[in-house]
Amino acid sequence: MVNIISTKNVNVHYGDKQAINNISLDFMKNKVTALIGPSGCGKSTFLRCLNRMNDVIEICKVEGQIYMNDTDIYSNEIEVEHLREKIGMVFQKPNPFPKSIFDNVAYGPRIHGFTDKKNEMDEIVVTALKKAGLFEEVKDRLDDLGTSLSGGQQQRLCIARAIAVKPEVILMDEPCSALDPIATSIIEELITELKESYTIIIVTHSMQQAARVSDKTAFFHLGNLIEEGDTTKIFTKPDNQKTNDYITGRFG
Amino acid sequence: MSNIKKRLSAERRFKFYGQVGVFLSLLFVSLLIIKIFSTGSGAFFRTTIETDIFFDPELMNVDQNSSDKEISRASFEKLADGVIDFNFKNLSEDEFIKIREMYTRRFDYQLRDYFLKNKEVINNTVTLEISASSDLDQIVKGNYPRNVPESQRKINDYQLTILDELTSKEKIGSTFNFWFFTNGDSRDPETAGILGAIMGSLYALMICLVFSFPIGLFASVYLEEFTKPGKMTDLIEVNINNLAAVPSIVFGLLGLGMLIGVFNMPFQVPLVGGLTLGFMTLPTIIIACRSSLRAVPPSIRHGALALGATKVQTTFHHVVPLALPGTLTGTIIGMAQALGETAPLLMVGMVAFVMEIPGGPLDPATGLPSQIYLWSESAERGFIEKTSAGIMLLLLFLIVMNLAAILIRRKVEVKW
Questions:
Q1: Are residues B337 and B228 in the same domain?
Q2: Which domain holds residue B280?
Q3: What pLDDT digit, counting tens, does each position of B251-300 carry?
Q4: Is residue B92 located within the same domain as residue B212?
Q5: What's the predicted TM-score (pTM) here?
Q6: Is B28 contained in some domain?
Q7: Do A98 and B228 touch (CB under 8 A)?
Q8: Quick check: B382 and B189 in contact, CB under 8 A?
């Protein structure tokens, strides 16, 4: 198995406060890795290091090495825009642009200059919507506002938007926490389908969700990586007592 | 339980105070409007005297074959004098002058304008509604008392007799005063119009918008999206907020000192007036634009950045369009403020007697508020109603602009 992203000794500070302590973690290609842990354990912060979204936060300092396909993503030669083309992201709250469904999906391909031709762009948008399992529901109203869709549909639109730029990795930051159980199960099925073409790293609060969708699981606590490994092992016989306590619901 | 009565009565008392406050403010607004309308509505009508006019070729330097240019330059004074002799027979020199004073001083222009359009009337007699002088107009409208000694009256006894004679013959009429909307300023209230001031204000506002909107927009976008918060931005923020509160006369002085003094720009022109108003509007636009930018949820920025958009792409593709309705609303309100500002116009000389209607931002002009100010200073009774009519127009423009601001906010506002 090939590691697509590997991190070594990652430390993150928000001002004086340390949020991530010396974490080293590798992510395998075409697998779903779940990052679990109680609130404030640093799992979302860690996720945002992977596509350098922490750059947006002024006071956030990231140290350590993060390699994607053996390239240091924090080196000066890497354009952050190019990195984010390779590593897409889906956020906790669906955040479609207040534009048409079509334009939402076409925005990424447009700014990266994938194509100038109208029919090729149509193709890209339709493919992305199909992969996100949304096409059948919206094919007659691609000109409607993306914000007019239901919450679950909006989140799948955001997934389609991320897929459209042909990333290798998709980061998902609690993608179902704002959705109802039915929408959640649709997204979970989608994640299982998507891992054939993409590497998925998902942060989740729900341990059932981690157990259902992921191949690998990493348990975070207070900025430390407590334990990582195959999902079945973590959920059946974890090595660490804290992990055991967390997954059995004794704290968190 | 024990204090429930006290609490409820406090609530009733508060509601009552609120109602009294609202009632009082409505009362004052309606008093203002009633006062202005009752004084100003007269300005929209002009008293006329029905007069038979014989276009006597001997009294005119032109005939039906003359070109329009020749006619425009020709004098119709003699014809006007002839018309008075023609209508009122056997006048003494003194009586003639008194009757001539009952007509507008622009009598000859009115004849010329008619002849320009109807050249075939030469050698014929037509009956026209000739405008009365402002003093006659005021006495007909009842704004001058008649029962005072002749020495205290603008209209003497002889003129009153003639007026009563004309009235009994039903020759005194009233017509809609188009001149108020089509003329520039004039020394004579009956021919004074507001178009020159409207155009002056329009050019000044255009300059103001073209100058302050782009600068305000880009300054706010830069400050809000691209600078790191710190001491420097705090300092700028405080200064912008202070600028918004600076009295407008200070901006007028800035315009006078900098634009006219340092850059040698011409005095009295809408270009300078507009730039000066622009200085004043800039902080208002920046504050409105920054608060609209701040209201755009960060999730939109993150969504675009996560797709690999650059900062500039994120800002101009997503954030600015979402902030635009709020910015436009703020801009229109700033423009409405600028329209009503008098002090900056005073300082840059846009408060002078200008008869010509300005044809561009580099022609001498006044603005609406300064025209109102000028008229309110005039001694003639006829200018009082012009002043109120000018205020009515200014209020109308302000209402339209504020309404537009509200409509834009309702229409273009993005719902999340």
A1: yes
A2: 195-412
A3: 999 999 999 999 999 999 999 999 999 999 999 999 999 999 999 999 99
A4: no
A5: 0.85
A6: no
A7: no
A8: yes
